[in-house]
Amino acid sequence: MLYLWFMNIDPIILSIPIYFLLIVVELLVQFFHNQKIYRLNDAVTNISCGITQQITGAFFKVITIAAYQFVYENWSLFHIENTWWSVTLLILAVDLCYYWAHRMSHEVNLFWGGHVVHHQSEDYNFSVALRQGSFQVVWTFWFYIPLAFLGFNTVTFLLVAALNTVYQFWIHTETIGKLPRPIELIFNTPSHHRVHHGRNPKYIDKNHAGSLIIWDRMFGTFQEEEERPTYGITKPINTWNPVWANLQHYVDMTSQLKSTPGLMNKLGILFNKPGWRPVALGGYQPAPEVDKANYRKYDTHPALKISIYVLVQFVIALGVTSVFLFTLPDQELINKLVFSLVIVWSVAQFGLLLDNHPDWSRLEYLRILFCGGIFSFLYPLPIVVIISVLYTVTSLITFFFIYKPAAGRVRSVINS
Predict the structure, then answer these.
(1) Where are the chain's structural domains?
(2) Model pTM?
């Protein structure tokens, strides 16, 4: 099966060690240069969103790859052989399709719900590159279908598209300044992409490029980096919960649809730019200027022992996720579903702990018991049972002694 074959060689999955190596490099820069690049709660949430996207993507890819292959086999105009010129043409075509898919993800409110997750972080570092929306592929994959009609075979397309994604990891950093002018003219760079992540009105909906900035220059969406951007979205989500990060926009949009009269107006909410409203309800709401004097990033300060506990549990969850992704082609469907439930529940729970939610935090006991028990049930091997029991007992005891329910939700902020 084509999907299973691709999952074994997916460059995005195979590049995971490189991603974390670069994050370590950035952490070393933070340490030796005394720069504030990372915050634990933000970085954990960024990577957690990436985890949920990879988990859901394991199921969505079955549909999207099958759709591309179906069009290629039945409706393609040509069957293009892999030569140096055809692969070069495909690289350019994939990047152009990415530009329009990405641009429409900003200009169509319904599509923005899948992409907004990537822009929610108020920091800008390599971990932000991993912060991806679980539903984005639902809206953007179809922009690549014309390549199947033209006759670019599925395997080569998937590899080129994945490499296009891998390229974009390194541009999510403030540690690299502007590069020599010829590079800045042609390629997407950290400077160009910092603009894209800015919530300053002059920066919003600019620099949609994947690998080549030439598309933005051609289609009028290019913006040079001038002052340092203020990162994030105009309506911060104010939570470290990656599941809510994926759902909040759609919840808000549903509320807007209910309060907006008329079918055409409701369609306008769905398919116009984010911020669109009927004239009767005030008209388009442009992005406000950033009040830098009063702007504060969302932040929380749970007890240090809770932060350490979350970090240790998160590393364990990251290991489980890696095992899941690297063994995905060999997993039975029930195992895939259970792995997915355990991983998504875990990262959501970590977000609630970092948010200082006293009521929801008590679910950690149930999560530990479920995680420890389910793997013993699915894999009743002595070594698995022993590891599961050790994990369950040590986690329950540790959490019992370190967790002290707060009187209410605690929130504090830091200067940007």
Answers:
(1) 2-219, 300-402
(2) 0.92
